[in-house]
Amino acid sequence: MHLSTHCERSWSNVLLSVGEGTCLEDDEGFISLPSTTVLVNDVPAMINEVFGDNINPMLFISRAILAPKNEHVDCINDLIIDKMHGEVTVYNSIDPLSERSNELIPTEYLNH
Q1: Distance CA 83, CA 71 (A)
Q2: What number of other Cβ atoms are within 10 A of residue 33's Cβ?
Q3: Using CA atoms, how far apart are residues 95 and 20, in angstroms rounded to an integer?
Q4: Model confidence over 46-76: pLDDT tens digits?
């Protein structure tokens, strides 16, 4: 077994135990993370450390930045997208509605 595979399995077990609420807590309700875990306050510096100056989308296959809340993920994603080169393309999805579904779904939730 390669070291990276062992580390990946170990980290996935940590994430599962946190998500399932089965990780050990201290008297104050805090959990211990592995010593290899890096916590940062400077998000742009973290992005630079993980992905470098010129972000190559192929790096997303082997690297990740984890965040506790979707609002943090959205902020990090926006910063990463701003660093990427090239033209922005937006793909909108269209979900067909049945004849009666207009009555059930408020228009503010439908694609415009």
Answers
A1: 19
A2: 13
A3: 33
A4: 898 888 888 888 888 888 887 878 898 999 9
